[in-house]
Specification:
The chain is α+β, with helices and mostly antiparallel strands. The chain is built from 13 helices and ten strands. The strands form two sheets. Strands 1, 2, 3, 4, 5, 6 and 7 form a seven-stranded mixed sheet that branches. A hairpin with a 3-residue loop joins strand 3 and strand 4. The chain starts with a strand and ends with a helix.
């Protein structure tokens, strides 16, 4: 048996700026961190022949390249995944939570096919696999590969060449071992809205929202330069600012989600944002530890 796990992530600032065409034209700055919740991939030899893929559905196949699961199919067609096999996909959290699960799975699948791949080359190959059939940007593969709390700067014009050299030149990673990590661990509160969603259904609106993306990038650039020195209230105020920019994009929020955010703030949250593309998934708030229970109870999440 081979078991691979890749971490999910929370993106604090810059999300959406890694999408095309904005990223190629303007570049992207992302402030994000990996969390201790994972996507798991287990591979077993199957001496009786054929392939079995198990996730929320079960597929019995002659070849993984015929799978209905798009990431499994894309990986099998692009890489040499050993067959016959049983492939089992599980996650600590539900699909559609806005925590980068599909990109983490793409990383795990490519790592299964090519165990020697690592670093930016693994990011590049995982991106090629998912972006065949998805609007995905570049940011979600990075925490799944590198872990930690980092600032990522992406030169989209270089990445558009689709070569390993381009990704080595096009992505700069700055680890943030600082006060920010202490704040996240002490003040961070992750809550599931109970509403899963398909990111691709929302990302079309993001791609058209150039003005908002420019403001989101400007804020991410401002935060990236001093995130390691921020106090909890300042970091939370910036989160509130990025949420106000994000919620203006069509389809990202609605009345129930606005109520949840306002209720959290009125019961002690300092600031927060909806993770991922929006329209459901998970909230991430910064809340003083003594107020976390109050916020949870008020929201019922």
């Amino acid at each position: 048996m081979k078991v691979i796990r890749a971490p999910l992530r929370i993106s604090l600032f810059g999300g959406g700026t890694d999408l095309e065409p904005f990223c190629t034209e303007h570049g992207s700055t992302i402030v994000s961190f990996a969390i201790n919740r994972y996507m798991y991939l287990a591979w077993n030899d199957r001496p009786t022949g054929g392939c079995r893929v198990s996730y929320s559905q079960v597929e019995e196949l002659d070849h993984l390249g015929n799978a209905r699961h798009t990431l499994v199919r894309n990986t099998a067609l692009a890489h040499d995944v050993a067959e016959p096999c049983t492939l089992t996909i599980t996650s600590d959290l539900p699909k559609g939570t806005g925590l980068g699960g599909s990109s983490a799975l793409a990383v795990a699948l490519v790592k299964l096919a090519q165990p020697d791949l690592a670093g930016k080359e693994l990011v590049h190959r995982a991106g090629l696999v998912e972006r065949i059939t998805s609007r995905a940007g570049w940011q979600d593969y990075l925490p799944a590969v590198f872990g930690g709390f980092n600032v990522y700067r992406i030169d989209g014009a270089k990445l558009s060449r689709d070569t390993v050299r381009a990704i080595n030149e096009g992505i700069t990673i700055t680890p943030t071992l600082s006060r920010a990590e202490v704040i996240i661990n002490r003040y961070g509160l992750l809550l599931y809205t109970g509403a899963a969603r398909e990111a691709d259904n929302v990302l079309g609106s993001w791609q058209k929202s150039t003005a908002q993306l420019a403001d989101i990038k400007a804020l991410a650039d401002r935060v990236a330069g001093r995130v390691g020195a921020m106090m909890p209230t300042e970091l939370a105020q910036c989160l509130d600012e990025t949420w106000e920019l994000k919620r203006r994009i069509s389809g990202v929020s609605d009345s129930p989600l606005d109520w949840q955010y306002n209720t959290a703030m009125s019961h002690g949250a300092l600031g927060g944002k909806l993770c991922g593309a929006g329209a459901g998934g998970c909230w991430f708030f910064l809340v003083p530890p003594e107020r976390k229970r109050r916020v949870r109870r008020a929201l019922g999440l």
